[in-house]
Design brief:
mainly alpha; 6% strand; elongated; three-stranded antiparallel beta sheet
Length: 108
Amino acid sequence: MRYNSKKNELVAQETLILNEIGFDMDSHPTFFIIVEILMAQGIMYTSDKHFQSTMQDEKCVNLLEKYVDFFVLLALQDHKLVNTNQYLISCSIVSAARKQCNINPVWS
C-alpha cells in the first residue's frame, strides 16, 4: 500500500510540473518542426546521385538547404495547407528540394 501512495504522489508531481511548463501530448507537430527533425537526421546520403555522379559537393548541400527553406516559406504562406497532414507536407518539401537539386532518388 505504501508503494502505491508514493507512486501516486510521484505521478501527481510529474503532472503538476508538465502542466506548469505547458507540455501537451495531444498537440501535433507542425510541418516546420518535422522538417527541422528531418534536416537534423540528414536528407542527403552517400549513395545519392547528382547528375549521374556520387555526390559529396558542399555547394549542393547549401543549395539543398536553401531550397528546403524556400519551400517551407512557400508552404507557410498557403492557408489551404492548415488542415493537411503535416508529415505529408514535410516529406513533400524535402522531396521537392531534392528534385530541384537533381538528387536521385528523390525519396528513399
